[in-house]
Amino acid sequence: MLVITRKIGERVCIGDDIVVEVLDIVGSTVRLGIEAPASVPIFRHEIWLEIQAENRAAAEVSVDDLPATDPSSSS
Amino acid sequence: MQIDSSRFGRLEVRDDTVLSFPDGLIGLPGTSYALVAQSERTPFYWLHSAEHADVAVPVTMPWLFFANYEVRVPDEDAARLLLSDPGAAEIFCVVRAAPDIADFTINLAGPVIVNTSRRIGRQIINAAGGYAVRQPLFAEVELNEVRADPVSMVVPATATT
Q: Could you say which of B48, B62, B98, B156 is the most buried, measured as most Cβ atoms within 10 Å of its Cβ?
């Protein structure tokens, strides 16, 4: 992992077409501006962890918890 | 081929219904899955690992429950799915079932995209933002209002042995 120090308004370039700028720092919160091609997925890491936890929880349920038959025919 | 299932026993699965997930499902093992249904017209399927008997998650078609749901597939994900025509995609969302149906949730933030013609699947992070990982499933419709049509590539959950 590369660790570098930046001030407000300073930028980091990643490859040819990704630029990350430190827009603002308030207390322990940093606002970043990211310029990148639309083809590059950018997401908060927490969302990945949440989906991972959700998949694992979904895999824990038993068959009995799912409505097994067509709801429209059973009513 | 045959799939051993801790839930359903040994399932006979046509080779052309097996879906390749080169990067797996997020946080779950295996790269080969099949869609298993417990009945013909249920809105719920099990996305079942072909390699791990106990790994399966319930999925459904999100538009049955959220008519205005949007999915935007990032270019990189579309490339990995070999997906050039959006019409060739079938989209499912993982459901967390619960003993009480009112507690069911659906993950609208991480939909599963299946390229039906190439039989490649991938769970993506929806680039149409603002969707919840745990959205109450029955927020807009009741279960008895859901009309599910049979989906191709679905395998009946009938044990062969």
A: B48
